[in-house]
Amino acid sequence: MKNYLWNMFANIQNGQLIRRNVIFQRRKKICEEFLKILWAEGFILGYKIDKKNENQVKIFLKYTNNKPVIRSIKFLSKPSRRLYQSAKQIWKINSNKSFIIFSTNQGLKAVTDCKKLGIGGEPFVAIN
Asked: Belongs to which family (predicted)?
């Protein structure tokens, strides 16, 4: 499951390093859920399913002043070392400095949504 996510985030980082406007990614449900969160938080311009190949997703990358919006992506929880944070631990996170996406029992949620709902989960990625 996570190999698709690691591929997607590596493609996004590499695409922004070479200043691409659009990148293509293999279409998976978990990747689309992450893209929804990234789009809602303003890290990408959008995404859509490719008309020619329905197994691919077009991701439109976002830049401000010719610099990528996503400066760095760090994977927090790995298959060899799983991390879990309770709702109390999530409240200690400063959400102004970094953006963290959690896998919860209610699906993928941003750190701000986890604070509102009072739930914990497994942190996947931190985006700066």
From this structure: Belongs to the universal ribosomal protein uS8 family.
Domain span at residue 86 reads 73-127
State which of 68, 88, 118 marks the end of a domain: 68
Residue 96's pLDDT is 78
Q: Name the domain count of the chain.
A: 2
CA distance 54 to 2: 21
Report pLDDT digits (tens) over 12-29: 999 999 999 999 999 999
Q: What are the pLDDT digits (tens) for 68-78?
A: 998 888 888 87
| Percent of the chain predicted with pLDDT > 70 | 98
Question: Which token pair is 104?
Answer: 């919860």
Residues with Cβ within 8 Å of residue 43, at least 6 apart in sequence: 62, 69, 70, 99, 127
CA-CA distance, 127 to 108, in Å (whole number)?
Answer: 15
